[in-house]
Amino acid sequence: MKLADRMSLLAAEGAYAVLSRAQELERRGKSIIHFEIGQPDFATPVHITNSGIAALRAGKTKYTSPLGIVELRDVIARFITKTHGIETTRGQVAVTPSGKTAIFAAFAATISPGDEVMYPDPGFPTYRTLIDFFGGIAVPVPLVAANHFSFDMSVFRKRFSKRTRVVVLNSPSNPTGGVIPKSDIEEIASMVKHTDAWVVTDEMYSRMLYGSVPYASIYSLPKMKRQTIIVDGFSKTYAMTGWRLGYMVVPDTMIDRIDYLLTHLVGCTASFVQEAGIAALTGSQRASKRMVGEFHERRDIIVRKLNRISGIRCQVPDGAFYVFPDVSSFGMTSEKFASYVLSKAGVAVLPGTAFGNNGQGYIRISYAAKVRDIEEGVNRISRALSYL
């Protein structure tokens, strides 16, 4: 039987393919250090877990509005108002079962066949996959290592045109950890606000910052609220990857269509999970801040150790929990390098090309791992490379 043509546009995400291979090696008895999956190694804070359990026991297991429960939407609106300095209301907020669902909904709402979509390369693989899925024309914009993995603005200016329908921003970035400077955000806004293009800003890592570059959201800039869709969630900040809870903030003129889309796409987000989301945003932030502090320390450790390996050059990322070191001096493609360190050293990393063509010559390492594993993993990589 023949599947729809659009199904051929879907592909596996690189992280899960590497994880599968690494787990197979583990089943054969090989010791593996996991640097491939981007999820916090911490437990969900206790008060959040307890809220979800209490909601289950209270029978909060029924359908909710497709947009989410009013209480959580209000909390998110207040949070965005406070953090972005722009008045935001419940009527702009849709709760989704994951940030990926929010990205899907944002792209479904803005991309028609033939529309040009500018996005970061290297970038989160879901962007390119969904651009293709919805019939858009992918317009990659390089992230430049020399610019702390921000956009190459000269390329951005050349590729932004009257055909541009959507601009995708992700700051801090997966896979590089780069933060887009406010000056670049302001320049992008100055180009976009005189057109009918949308901006989808993925802010999943926006609370994982290490102080060297001030964070700026395009949503906060004058006259950008009407053209901006924020995508965010709870997975990274609150170590809730398995809870599947995200949200989107959209212009109020769009919310009815998002309501209809979520009605047919997911029905609703699990009600008890939404209760846990309220606890996450309104409860103590100490555990979350402690996680960010530990990620900061781990970042410093892994960058220092990687840069001691002859042939590796590693930028200091300003956010998220990834490093994106340059390994091009070893004369291997990113794929061959990642395969080599997995088989030879027992260290699972992702090839930079899992995030786009501009990732060639790089690998992504997630330092969401214990310090002892970070040190052991980098030591293993160093030993394996010494044999070349």
Overall description:
The protein is an alpha/beta fold and 388 residues long. The protein has two domains: 5-44 and 286-386, Aspartate Aminotransferase, domain 1, CATH 3.90.1150; 47-282, Type I PLP-dependent aspartate aminotransferase-like (Major domain) (Aspartate Aminotransferase, domain 2, 3-Layer(aba) Sandwich). The protein contains twelve helices and 13 strands. The chain has helices at residues 14-27, 46-57, 70-84, 99-110, 125-133, 153-159, 182-192, 255-265, 271-282, 286-307, 334-345, 371-386; strands at 33-34, 93-96, 116-121, 137-144, 150-151, 164-170, 198-202, 228-233, 246-249, 322-323, 347-348, 350-351, 363-366. Strands 2-9-8-7-6-3-4-5 form an eight-stranded mixed β-sheet, sandwiched between helices. Helix 7 (182-192) links the parallel strand 6 (164-170) and strand 7 (198-202). Helix 4 packs parallel to helix 5 (125-133) and helix 10 (286-307) packs parallel to helix 12. It starts with 13 loop residues before the first helix and ends with a helix. The mean pLDDT is 97.
List the helices and strands and how they pair.
Blueprint: H1 14-27, E1 33-34, H2 46-57, H3 70-84, E2 93-96, H4 99-110, E3 116-121, H5 125-133, E4 137-144, E5 150-151, H6 153-159, E6 164-170, H7 182-192, E7 198-202, E8 228-233, E9 246-249, H8 255-265, H9 271-282, H10 286-307, E10 322-323, H11 334-345, E11 347-348, E12 350-351, E13 363-366, H12 371-386
Parallel strand pairs: 1-11, 3-4, 3-6, 6-7, 7-8
Antiparallel strand pairs: 2-9, 4-5, 8-9, 10-13, 12-13
Helix pairs in contact: 2-9, 3-9, 4-5, 10-12, 11-12
